[in-house]
Design brief:
The structure is a homodimer of 400-residue chains. Chain A is α/β, with parallel strands linked by helices and 400 residues long. Chain A has helices spanning 13-22, 34-42, 53-64, 78-88, 102-105, 109-133, 180-199, 238-248, 267-279, 299-309, 337-340, 350-362, 388-394, and strands spanning 2-6, 26-31, 68-72, 92-95, 138-144, 159-164, 167-172, 202-208, 210-212, 252-255, 261-266, 287-292, 295-298, 316-319. In chain A, the strands form four sheets. A seven-stranded parallel sheet of chain A has the order 3-2-1-4-5-8-12, with helices on both faces. A three-stranded mixed sheet of chain A has the order 9-11-13. A two-stranded antiparallel ribbon of chain A has the order 6-7. In chain A, α8 (238-248) packs parallel to α10, α8 (238-248) packs across α12 (350-362) and α10 (299-309) packs across α12. The model of chain A is unreliable at 388-400 (pLDDT under 50).
Chain lengths: 400, 400
């Protein structure tokens, strides 16, 4: 298949592109380097050094003999989107190209507006371009399990049959997203569902859990193929951050009680799920939703697993939760559709965590302790980003 | 109360401002004249001539002895929004200031993106400004019954109790909006609900039906207090348009079978509902939803009522439905919350339609037949607007 990966320079976009390339697909990647720009803005950096996109593409050529075609541009530029679709003529577009951090979207008014405009307009432009250029293109869109929030009933995959006052209908599952970022994904899902209905487009919404891990069979082939590893308070995800904290001797920071439970998956399963969605496309006019995670854990359980795996001593700290979220809640979410398509999950175990800890250990001299602490408060309308420098100046030695 | 009406120069915003002013509230109006700009873009005009905002305000001063404070600016300008809230210091903000035409949002990519960015960013800026300036301000937001679509179960007011696999929760009612405009209102509702949750804001979402009528006790006091009357294929709403067609001897144009059923209300009830929402504010942290309509009618029923009321002969034409919508469907929607607060509806009858027909008759020389036909096709990604001139040139005499 011809597959275009939008956001193909990012944490998951890049390894997905390589995986699809090695699996025999013709792959193009599109990126505007917004993700690298956020690091510059915040004064932080990926733990694992990463090469530039053109260098990555060149190394992949050399190592694999396979070509990935890079396109540099912005999805909010409608003409660029149409031009790339016409030029690459994909069968499938995999869309990772969104601002994907909840804390980043909650920094202040400008970041909230940026996140929603960037994500919603980029996706709208893509829908129009697909409808204009080739409505048979299958859109595989990265959503998030966070769209659902934490309802007190089972979470289904996108739709729920509701019986009410003696009548029954299958309706979109009610959403209760927890940040302006998560809201942008809900907006996207609604826009995409509508485009499938009016224009007969085909789309798969992958409501993904929290991803952990950094190594994939393809990125392991050369250091310049590595993908990024975020551990900072804004873009770092929970398990990756806990591993960094363990290795550098910083207490593991749990927000609130730690009872918050979320769906999670291994980075290698992200690649497998995206490929399964691509090779088993939605029907024309179909908007389908897959819940893309393999296991659920509470934050406390994750912390305990790191404590149990790390060879040295690890302390656990509970911080005031900077987010507004339920800390103890019911959580049971369906995730059978990708398993039905053949997904064989990599489940989280001590060996996975060990390899994560090894990744961190190799780059421990790059850890910036000042970047870890959460600085964005949901209850405030404006938070100051503690850049590496200022945080270091402000914090006590015991605090780092 | 001090009430700031955003979009206070528009079809409903202006008469709402006058009504609230006459009821003893201190009223300010904010507008960027976007609505007048759409007319210029499309080459159409309101059937009833309207004065400029500053002139309207001056006449209201003279006629009533009451002052309405005008602010000219754009909600997508965050600094303007904060400045106005600080300056006027409202107890309540009534938010009409959105692009409100479904066909306009479906013209093409630019109009879809404009509609969603204008509406979503304006509302986001407002939420941030309220949280910063005074979180006790009550936000009364105009939504639409079109957010719900036409599910096969009863529509409730914003939330629905769902029992699923033995567990029960009260969840946001699933939405199935039918245009990029309606989607923008769904996005707004989700953003507002979240802001109430994290910042303790108070908001009432008024999911309004289709409004008919043009005269209110206040606008009737002077010709320069009149509000607009739209009958064109893009901004004209169904009953207003049917009355124009009857008066000028044009067949009434039903899209499709006419089985489409919608909630409707008299313009005077809009004013009463908004005032009831203002004077009975939501609690701090509360996001509540009122379904703001008084009766449901199918399009065919409305056409028949015009046929029965108009003294002359009226033909009825069925056009291919330019929209993608169910033409025959179940429709039963709750609307008790505003009645519980004391709303006494003006129900639709021959006398209401007669006065509408009289309004049209007074201005029948201003009717542009070329503007009536629907030009925006939901199934197309780009529609040409038939401006008055080109439509007149293109249409056969029998067609007008």
């Amino acid at each position: 298949m011809r597959i275009l990966v939008l956001g193909g320079d990012g944490y998951l976009g890049w390894p997905t592109a390589l995986h699809l390339s090695r699996r025999g697909h013709d792959v193009g990647v599109v990126d505007n380097f917004a993700r690298r720009g956020y690091d510059l803005e915040m004064g932080v950096d990926t733990l694992v050094p990463i090469a530039g996109l053109q260098r990555r593409v060149r190394v992949w050529d050399e190592v694999s003999g396979l070509h990935v075609e890079p396109y540099v541009g912005d999805l909010t530029d409608a003409e660029f989107v149409s031009r790339v679709l016409r030029d690459f003529a994909p069968d499938t577009v995999v869309h990772f190209a969104e601002q994907r951090s909840a804390p980043y979207s909650m920094i202040d008014q400008k970041h909230a507006v940026y996140t929603q405009v960037n994500n919603v307009v980029g996706t709208l432009n893509l829908l129009y371009a697909i409808a204009d250029v080739d409505p048979s293109i299958h859109l595989v869109k990265l959503g998030t399990m966070g769209e659902y929030g934490t309802p007190n009933i089972d979470i289904e995959e996108g739709f729920i049959e509701i019986t009410h006052r003696g009548r029954t209908d299958l309706l979109p599952y009610p959403k209760q997203p927890g940040s302006f970022y998560h809201l942008s994904k809900v907006h996207d899902s609604a826009n995409i569902m509508f485009a499938c209905r009016i224009w007969g487009l085909r789309s798969t919404d992958l409501n993904q859990g929290i991803v952990y891990g950094q190594e994939t069979p393809e990125t392991d082939l050369h250091p310049d193929l590595a993908t990024r590893f975020d551990y900072d308070g804004v873009f770092g995800t929970v398990l990756n951050r806990f591993c960094v904290q363990a290795v550098v001797g910083h207490p593991i920071t749990i927000y609130g009680s730690g009872g918050q439970t979320r769906g999670m998956l291994d980075i290698r399963d992200t690649l497998a799920c995206v490929e399964l969605a691509c090779t088993n496309p939605a029907e024309a006019g179909e908007f389908r939703v897959f819940n893309q995670f393999t296991e659920s854990f509470s934050v406390s359980q994750l912390a305990q697993m790191v404590v149990d795996t790390f060879p040295g001593r690890v302390e656990v700290d509970h911080l005031d939760d900077p987010r507004v979220e339920k800390q103890e809640h019911y959580y049971r979410a369906a995730h059978t559709k990708l398993l039905d398509l053949g997904l064989v999950p990599h489940l989280l175990n001590q060996s996975t965590i060990s390899s994560l800890l090894q990744v961190v250990d190799r780059h421990r001299d790059r850890v910036d302790l000042g970047a870890i602490r959460p600085t964005v408060q949901w209850r405030a309308t404006s938070s100051t980003l503690a850049t590496a420098g200022s945080a270091t100046r402000e914090s006590e030695p015991t605090d780092a």
